[in-house]
């Protein structure tokens, strides 16, 4: 199936669609979901140190038989690894866990801790060829501009909650000057049935002979978002990727855009994030 690619602000190409493995256990489950996806044509996997399944992602990439250069792997550093000098050690450990030679895209997972020091090490890791592109995740406070203005290498991607109920219009304007692409986490609202069953998706699903989820995912693609819906169900994995053979009209895109309620599924103040994300650190 022909999928779409986006050129990042450093010239690297990212497959616009991939597989997310948040909350998928390390071992057979992660490996199988990734292998199923890669066999069906996926070329992009989104993991994180905090997901504790990078080893299984790496195994799937190596066992797939697909040339390494055709697969795009993203992982994320946890705040416990932030700091100049400290972050480079974290990156080296990540490279060992993944064991796939290099990391395509490395993100700072959360906007707390010594993120400025961490960014300097990430820039060095790019110079050293350990990492191809670097970016941010969940930076939505003014810490976003703090990193962007100081950065020698501007963030290639910003991964945030984004779906038809929370479309991130303001954030897209803030990040536009840096040429940073938006990656949408919770693309189908973490499977929320209220979102999935919105009448507009049911109506369009009927028109195009698709499922409601496929309509939502297609909307993301036409919005220019990078997406990696999570699934361990082979039928869902297959269906989610089957969205490159139809196109929503401008009117239909506008109808979906009008669902924006500026309401998140995950809500936490910066203070709560500080407390929550520094209280835990992932095992090596
Ligand atoms: N940076 C961050 O802080 C952050 C936070 C959250 C997520 N993420 C990333 O974003 C990815 C996606 O987010 P997410 O996994 O939380 O939520 P999601 O992709 O919006 O939703 C996943 C849920 O939807 C179900 N699902 C998938 N395809 C379906 C289909 N075709 N029909 C019906 N249900 C379907 C899945 O169940 P089945 O497995 O049964 O299909 C799962 O319960 C994550 O895996 C992770 O890579 C990043």
Description of the structure:
- The protein has helices at 28-39, 54-63, 86-98, 115-127, 143-150, 169-175, 193-196, 199-208, 212-223, 234-241, 250-257, 270-278; strands spanning 5-7, 13-15, 19-20, 44-46, 72-77, 103-108, 131-137, 157-161, 181-185, 226-227.
- By secondary structure, the chain is α/β, with parallel strands linked by helices.
- It has an eight-stranded parallel beta sheet. A two-stranded antiparallel sheet has the order 1-2.
- Helix 6 links the parallel strand 8 (157-161) and strand 9 (181-185).
- Helix 1 (28-39) packs parallel to helix 2, helix 3 crosses helix 4 and helix 8 (199-208) packs across helix 9.
- The protein is globular, with a radius of gyration of 18 Å.
- The termini are far apart.
- The model has no long low-confidence stretch (mean pLDDT 98).
- NADP nicotinamide-adenine-dinucleotide phosphate (NAP) is lined by residues 20-22, 46, 137-138, 159, 185-191, 213, 228-233, 236, 239-240.
- NADP nicotinamide-adenine-dinucleotide phosphate binds next to helix 10.
Short précis:
With 284 residues, the protein is α/β, with parallel strands linked by helices. It contains twelve helices and ten strands. The longest helix has 13 residues, at 86-98.
Layout of helices and strands, plus pairs?
Layout (H helix, E strand, L loop, with lengths): L4 E3 L5 E3 L3 E2 L7 H12 L4 E3 L7 H10 L8 E6 L8 H13 L4 E6 L6 H13 L3 E7 L5 H8 L6 E5 L7 H7 L5 E5 L7 H4 L2 H10 L3 H12 L2 E2 L6 H8 L8 H8 L12 H9 L6
Parallel strand pairs: 3-4, 4-5, 5-6, 6-7, 7-8, 8-9, 9-10
Antiparallel strand pairs: 1-2
Helix pairs in contact: 1-2, 3-4, 8-9
The structure holds NADP nicotinamide-adenine-dinucleotide phosphate (NAP).
């Amino acid at each position: 199936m022909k999928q779409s690619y986006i050129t990042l602000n450093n010239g690297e190409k990212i497959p616009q669609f991939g597989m997310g493995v948040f909350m998928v256990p390390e071992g057979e489950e992660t490996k199988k979901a990734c292998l199923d996806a890669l066999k069906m044509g996926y070329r992009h996997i989104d993991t994180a140190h905090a997901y504790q399944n990078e080893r299984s992602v790496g195994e799937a990439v190596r066992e797939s038989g697909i040339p390494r250069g055709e697969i795009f792997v993203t992982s994320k550093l946890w705040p416990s690894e932030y700091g100049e000098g400290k972050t480079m050690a974290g990156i080296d450990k990540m490279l060992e866990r993944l064991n796939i030679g290099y990391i395509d895209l490395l993100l700072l997972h959360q906007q707390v801790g010594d993120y400025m020091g961490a960014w300097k090490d990430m820039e060095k890791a790019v110079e050293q060829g350990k990492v191809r592109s670097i970016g941010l995740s969940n930076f939505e406070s003014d810490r976003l501009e703090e990193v962007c203005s100081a950065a020698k290498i501007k963030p290639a991607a910003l991964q945030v909650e984004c779906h038809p109920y929370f479309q991130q219009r303001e954030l897209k304007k803030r990040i536009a000057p840096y040429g940073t692409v938006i990656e949408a986490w919770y693309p189908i609202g973490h499977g929320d049935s209220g979102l999935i069953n919105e009448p507009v998706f049911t109506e369009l699903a009927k028109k195009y002979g698709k499922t409601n989820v496929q309509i939502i995912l297609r909307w993301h693609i036409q919005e220019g978002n990078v997406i990696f819906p999570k699934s361990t169900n082979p039928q869902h994995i297959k269906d989610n990727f089957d969205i490159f053979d139809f196109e929503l009209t401008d009117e239909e895109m506008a109808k979906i855009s009008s669902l924006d309620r500026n309401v998140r599924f995950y809500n936490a103040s910066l203070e709560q994030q500080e407390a929550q994300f520094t209280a835990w650190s992932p095992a090596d």
